[in-house]
Amino acid sequence: MDKFFDFDKTIEVLQYDFVRNALIAAAILGLLAGVLGPLIVSRNMAFSVHGTSELAVTGGAAALLLGVGVAYGALAGSIIAALVLGLLARRGSEHDSVIGVVLAFGLGLGVLFLWMYPGRASNKFGLLVGQIVSTDFTSIVLLSVCAVIVLGVLAFIYRPLMFASVDPDVAKARGVPTGVLSPIFAVLVGVATALGVQTVGALLVLALMVTPAAAACRITASPVRATILSVVFAEVAVLGGIILSLAPGVPVSAFVTAISFLIYLGARVFSKARATA
Question: Which CATH architecture has domain 7-276?
Fold first, then answer.
């Protein structure tokens, strides 16, 4: 057990600036993921989040190859992916197949870009599992600006978006512009997903964007309470995951996903116990 958690070493590592920066970035990301998560779950967009996160790798790999910031490349890749998916998947029946097609093509490009990149292998690996040491003041500024924009836009469209998520047919009949709201929300999710790539990596960004919200939705049907619980669960998972990963030097994503999964299991047990009580 001491191999995986050394309290004294963890306290020592917490004194470093890059660790404090990572915790600040993670707290912002947890807030974003927690707020967006219940809407993602209610709109059945988990596969979209997965596809967008993988295509963020393509953008990040292209940025490595061009010598620009990985965060900007991942952000551009996610936004482009969200727009392409939104434009091509107009009908729900073809949604998953379109994601699969675009995802395969994007990953192929990403693999090519990473193969062409002559730099360190750790930079390539960081795109997949996260790299908290790369979190600096510039990254926090970018994350903060993006978070403010995402939350601001979401606050403006939240009510009609929630209506369209719960009952899209009735919402459309009552004049809600569902055709406009869907791509806007997809872009918001794309931005948040790209930011998550920097912390937990593309392969496991679902641990933050979907799992906490799925756990919250098992406990309550209230959108407000589900959002609050989702934010709490996401913060516990990402902050706890970073702190637990410090001493052993294990990739952050390993702990983040483990905590998220345990929270989800606990929510399912609680839900089942309440239903049988």
Answer: Orthogonal Bundle (1.10)
Q: How far is CA 202 from CA 50, 66, 95, 180, 218, in A?
A: 8, 20, 21, 27, 25
- Evaluate whether 130 touches 78 at the Cβ level (below 8 Å): no
- One-letter amino acid at 22 equals A
Distance linking the first and last C-alpha atoms of the chain: 37
Q: What span, in angstroms and rounded, lies between the C-alpha atoms of 224 and 227?
A: 5
pLDDT in tens, 159-217: 998 888 888 778 888 888 877 888 888 888 888 887 777 666 666 677 888 999 999 99
Domains of the chain by residue range: 7-276
* Paired tokens of 143: 């994350």
How many CB atoms neighbour CB 261 within 10 A?
14
Q: Is the dihedral of CA 236, 237, 239, 244 positive or negative?
A: positive
pTM of the predicted protein model: 0.83
